């Protein structure tokens, strides 16, 4: 997990000088990057080197046979979009016809996600955002509104882990995870809710976890945050439902993401044995659920907590 990275989004700063922020140094070629590491799992809103990264649009050619068009014309912000579930979600939303703001604290990872979106004919912008930094979030939201004039979906996917037994956990470990995983969700949702209220429509999707329901050894801080974001969607579903805004949470089980990079192979095999389906989940399986919840097919689903775990908690 990366700490202490500042957000200096020049997308909006250039606009303050009278320039179109979307014409400033767009990335036109694929960016090569090393494979993601666990340290890159943090989240999210500046352009690469301070400039927006623009994935190629659909160019009037529809989805080029990709996806089922569940999200045509919708605008989605995805935090933690640089790798793992966030990257899979960005790619899936773009395949389904959405315009995607890929947000992550690591811009190399953002560039890799945008390259994949572009290769699938999708339309995306990249931002460097630290979800603990309200100013960086505000600049990202302004950039999204300048480009697409609306926000339909927010996927609060950004998160970190700093595990330790409770007796050994430091205040810094506890507070850092709370700041990113819980307050970060608050910060990002607070930044878009007025826009959704003006539209009288919107969809907020929080990344929880089975750990947020059942707890887990060595994860007092993480469990607290993942339980907390469930409470948030339950409350927002009540408060915002009459305004056309839905709020739901997904609780993934054990998914093949960089967060498992440091787990010994023997331990992973034992986890697989506990899953009735006999395997770990794939990021795309979580992304598919997010895309469905964001679509009109899920128009009456509000305040739900959906476990996507292969049945490991049975």
In short:
This protein has 314 residues and is an alpha/beta fold. The protein has nine helices and eight strands. Mean pLDDT is 84; it is low at 1-52 and 54-67.
Structure characteristics:
9 helices; 8 strands; 314 residues; alpha/beta; Rossmann fold; disordered N terminus
CATH class, please? Answer: Alpha Beta
Number of H/I helices: 9
Q: How many structural domains does the protein architecture include? A: 1
Instruction: Give the helix level as a range of percent.
Output: 25-40%
Per CATH, what is the topology? Rossmann fold
Tell me the span between the first and last alpha carbons: 31 Å
CATH superfamily: NAD(P)-binding Rossmann-like Domain
Report the uncertain regions: 1-52, 54-67
Strands across the major sheet, in which order? 1-4-3-2-5-6-7-8
- Write down the overall geometry: globular
Q: If classified by CATH, what would the architecture be?
A: 3-Layer(aba) Sandwich
* Major β-sheet profile: 8 strands, mixed
């Amino acid at each position: 997990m990366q700490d202490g990275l500042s957000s200096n989004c020049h997308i909006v700063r250039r606009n303050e000088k009278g320039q179109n922020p979307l014409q400033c140094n767009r990335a036109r070629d694929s960016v090569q990057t090393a494979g993601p590491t666990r340290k890159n799992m943090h989240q999210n809103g500046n352009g690469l080197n301070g400039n927006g990264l623009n994935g190629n649009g659909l160019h009037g050619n529809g989805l080029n046979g990709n996806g089922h068009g569940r999200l045509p014309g919708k605008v989605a912000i995805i935090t933690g979009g640089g790798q793992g579930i966030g990257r899979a979600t960005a790619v899936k939303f773009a395949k389904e016809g959405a315009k995607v703001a890929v947000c992550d604290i690591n811009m190399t990872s953002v560039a890799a996600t945008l390259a994949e979106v572009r290769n699938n004919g999708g339309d995306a912008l990249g931002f460097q955002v630290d979800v603990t930094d309200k100013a960086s979030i505000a600049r990202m939201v302004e950039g999204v509104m300048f480009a697409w004039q609306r926000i339909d979906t927010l996927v609060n996917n950004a998160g970190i882990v700093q595990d330790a037994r409770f007796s050994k956990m430091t205040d810094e470990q506890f507070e850092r995870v709370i700041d990113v995983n819980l307050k970060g969700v608050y910060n990002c949702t607070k930044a878009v809710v007025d826009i959704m209220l003006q539209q009288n429509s919107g969809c907020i999707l929080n990344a929880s976890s089975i750990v947020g329901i059942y707890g887990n050894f060595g994860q007092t801080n993480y469990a607290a945050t993942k339980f907390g974001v469930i409470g948030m969607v339950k409350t927002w579903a009540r408060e915002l439902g009459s305004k056309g805004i839905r709020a739901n949470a997904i609780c993934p089980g054990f998914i093949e993401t960089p967060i498992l990079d440091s787990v010994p192979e023997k331990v992973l095999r034992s986890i697989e044995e506990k899953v009735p389906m006999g395997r770990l989940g794939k990021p795309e399986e979580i992304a598919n659920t997010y895309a469905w919840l964001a679509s009109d097919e899920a128009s009456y689903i509000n305040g739900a907590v959906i476990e996507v775990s292969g049945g490991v908690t049975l």
